[in-house]
Amino acid sequence: MTDPSNEFQIYEPIDPERIEEWEVGEAPAATRHNSPSMWDSLFELPRTMLEMGALGYSWPLLGTAPRGDGHSVFVMPGFMAGDGSTLPLRRFLSRQNLKPISWGLGQNNGSFEQQEALLERFEALLATTSGRISLVGQSLGGVYARLLATHWPERVRQVITLGSPFASPGPDTVNSVVSRLFQYMSGMSTDEMRDQMLALAGPLEVPATAIYSRNDGVVHWTSCVDEKDKHAENVEVLGSHSGMGFNPTVLYVIADRLAQQANGWRPFNRQGCVKGLVFPTPVSNSRSQ
Prior knowledge:
single chain, alpha/beta, Rossmann fold, 6-stranded parallel sheet, 6 strands, 37% helix, 11% strand, globular
C-alpha cells in the first residue's frame, strides 16, 4: 500500500529575493498572552514530521472510521500551501465514501484577488454540483470555508476548520514570522487583516466544527475556537498546526463529522475509554481560557 504522506508539498518555494525584501518590514508587536508558545513554534516542524509518519502507520486503522454518504467535500489548503498539501486528506475522504474537491487556485497567498477567484470558483462549482457541499479548510483555508458559508448558507452542509484563526482579534495572535509573511504576500494591512477575521468570527447558519490544538506553534489556539451553540462545537486534539492535515486523530474527527446525516448533526462524542484519552476536554464557550 502506498504511504499517502509521501506525496505532497507542505509549502511551495519562495523567491529568496522576495524574502529579503519582506524581512525589512517591522513585525507586529505580540504579547505573551495571545501569541503561540515559543517552544511550540520552535518544535512545529519536527512535530509535523512525526504526524506525517504516524499517518502512514495508522492508515490501515483509519479505514475503520465512519463512512460518508457520498456527498461532495470542498477542501481548502492553508497559507502558502496548495492542493498538494491536502492530497492525503482528500485520498482519505475518497476512501471513506466521500467526494473531495480540490480548491484548484494554486498557492494560497491570502490576497483579495485570490479571495475573489475563490468566490467565483465556488459559485461555478455550485452550478454543477447537486445537493449541499461540506467545507473543510486548514488554517487560512478554514477562514475561507467560513467566508463561503456566509455567502451560501443554503448550499453548505457543514464547515470543519483545522487550526483556523477565524476568531483572531489581530496579527498578534499569529507567529510573528508568519504574520509578516502574510502581510507581504497578501498585500493586507494589519487593520484589514483584523477586520476580515472579525467579520467571520460570528456564528454561522450551518453546523460548524472547529478543531484546534493548545500546542499550535503558528496561531494561538484561542483564535481558532468558536462560540459553542446548538450547531457549533470545538474539538481539541494533540498536535501541531501544520500537521493537522496528516494527524490521524484529526482525520478521524473529520470522517466522523462528515458521516452524519445531512439534517442530523450532533456534537462530536468523545466519551469512551479510548476517545477520552485521545481527545482532551475542549473549551466550552470561551476564547479566553
